[in-house]
Amino acid sequence: MSDITRRDFIKIVNRILAGTGVGILVAPVIAYFYPASLQETPAEPIRVGKVEELPENEARVIKYGRYPTIVLNTPQGLRAYSAVCTHFACIVKWNKEIGQFACPCHAGFYDPLDGHVISGPPPRPLTSFPVKIVEGVIYVGEKT
């Protein structure tokens, strides 16, 4: 193995630092376009609770797959969305006063009826999940 010169050592260190800097700058761009709520979903539906336990305009957070999911009882029926904001994967919350899902990180707001972006930086709507009622019990997911 040959000895490395000071000049070659500095070149190597500069390349490593430049590569790290590029990675730090590119990672948020990739995260912006990569769907944060692409997640594993359970093979079986998740039991949320009885219909009467979730009043109209109220929400409950459950774990569906690896991430939190918001189940909302709207006047138009039950809805379930990933609680992961599509901007930078912050957790959205149901804001009953304004009737919208709100992301606390960058002021993104989502419509409760279909999850589309009302305002703010999120690039996509919230991921929705099927909701079914079986014998008075709410389930999120398929195969109910």
Write a concise keyword list for the protein shown above:
144 residues, 4-stranded antiparallel sheet, alpha+beta
Notes on the structure:
This protein has one helix spanning 6-33; strands at residues 46-50, 59-64, 67-74, 77-82, 93-95, 100-103, 108-110, 117-119, 128-129, 131-134, 137-140. It is of the alpha+beta class. It has a domain at 46-140: Rieske [2Fe-2S] iron-sulphur domain (Rieske Iron-sulfur Protein, 3-layer Sandwich), CATH 2.102.10. It has a 4-stranded antiparallel sheet, with no helix packed on it. β6 (100-103) and β7 form a beta hairpin. The radius of gyration is 22 Å and the shape is elongated.
In short:
The chain has 1 helix and 11 strands. By secondary structure, it is α+β, with helices and mostly antiparallel strands.
Major β-sheet profile: 4 strands, antiparallel
Shape designation: elongated
H-E string? HEEEEEEEEEEE
What structural category characterises the helix and strand content?
alpha+beta
Q: Got a strand count?
A: 11
CATH superfamily of the domain at 46-140: Rieske [2Fe-2S] iron-sulphur domain
Give me the CATH architecture of the domain at 46-140, please. Answer: 3-layer Sandwich
Main CATH class of the domain at 46-140: Mainly Beta
